[in-house]
Amino acid sequence: MGFANGRRVGGGVPARVCRGSCARRRVGEALHVAHALIRSGEFDVVHHRLDWLPLAFAAHVRAPMVTTVHGFSDPWIVPAYARAASAYVSISDADRRPELDY
Prior knowledge:
Elements: H1 25-38, E1 46-48, H2 53-56, E2 65-69, H3 78-83, E3 87-90
Parallel strand pairs: 1-2, 2-3
């Protein structure tokens, strides 16, 4: 299911979280994460690539979480990754941190 943009993904029913100005900046991202986590019990797995924000709420996810790492926006966010209950994959070996299991 595509929550962020309302496009159909994987044959599911599209769900648009917000439109217009709410989709800008971090507000839209936070609403997207909240919506996905509220519905997480409906899915076999929750996958994201949104940096640290979903990891801050990983304890509230009712399905296994997988995080795709596309690099780290700042080294100060690594503790959020280290504490979260998530499996990690990265787009390259260069985007990995030794503190995390992949």
